[in-house]
Design goal:
Strand content: under 5%
Number of domains: 1
Helix content: over 70%
Radius of gyration: 18 Å
Number of helices: 13
């Protein structure tokens, strides 16, 4: 993988971990997620008039991805209500690349060679180790893990859809903007009964969360979609999960979750996997 593509994905990974940590730090993760998606939708609407239009053949993928993204955000907010970020984030982000790698061969016809599978395996093994290192601090029971695994499935599904769609679009930036515009509108519509009258006041109290979170999630995924036009979807998806390392650092140093040997080893495996992607 070219160095500039690798560097771009690592930056996207940092952005992703940062906005997830901001979401988790809010007392009401549902309203926080709604604020982030609203901010992303506003930014997308402002950008679209200045971007080249995606090819018409990509719009069915945009529609499908938007529906999957809506499911993802709702599941993410639910997961963060019952599980620590140090448990939920590594598990959901570590499982998704495996599902993408398996689905990519079936749906996109992408075949990976041995070194790429090893790199993906290292990243996913690191995610598993980080999850084990955080289990003692996760909210107990099967429900948190079930929600996290459902979120991982949604991540894999929209990643595969977008890997196919963005290559047809010919315009990764506009493709990304359309997804976030439709996702924001969809989540606001579905959430209206619960959030009626609350969102405007929440946005006034938390403008930074809406704008910075919206910019971070849009930028993070936009970079990833561009990278999918440069490299196999499964490799990009796995490398993007280096966000696990950033999320763990944020959890330990900012959110004061406990550092364990498993977490340290897991972060090392993810970093090693990222290096292997560069060499594969």
């Amino acid at each position: 993988m070219p160095t500039h593509v690798l560097a771009a994905i690592l930056f996207a990974a940092f952005l992703h971990a940062a906005w997830n940590a901001a979401l988790k730090s809010q007392p009401d993760t549902f309203m926080a997620a709604l604020a982030v998606t609203s901010g992303a939708a506003v930014l997308a609407a402002l950008a679209l008039p200045f971007l080249p239009a995606p090819d018409a053949s990509s719009f069915p993928f945009i529609a499908a991805s938007s529906m999957l993204q809506i499911a993802y955000y709702l599941l993410l907010a639910a997961a963060y209500r019952v599980a620590d970020i140090g448990h939920a984030y590594p598990l959901m982000r570590g499982v998704a690349p495996v599902l993408v790698a398996l689905g990519g061969g079936l749906l996109a016809g992408e075949s990976l060679h041995g070194a790429q599978w090893i790199a993906i395996g290292l990243i996913c093994a690191g995610g598993a180790a980080l999850t084990l290192g955080a289990r003692g601090h996760a909210s107990g029971g099967l429900r948190p893990t079930a929600l996290v695994l459902l979120t991982a499935t949604a991540i894999a599904a929209y990643t595969l859809v977008d890997g196919l769609g963005v290559r047809r679009s010919g315009a990764p930036a506009a493709y990304t903007a359309w997804i976030f515009l439709l996702t924001g509108i969809g989540i606001a519509a579905l959430s209206w009964r619960r959030s009626a009258g609350q969102l405007p006041a929440y946005l006034i109290r938390h403008p930074g969360l809406a704008l910075m979170g919206g910019a971070a999630t849009t930028g993070s995924y936009g970079i990833a979609l561009w990278a999918m036009t440069q490299a196999p979807v499964a490799v990009v998806a796995a490398l993007r999960e280096t966000s696990i390392v950033f999320a763990t650092a944020i959890a330990v140093f900012l959110l004061r979750e406990r550092a364990t040997r498993a977490r340290i080893c897991g972060a090392g495996l993810v970093a090693l996997g990222a290096a292997a992607v560069r060499l594969a």
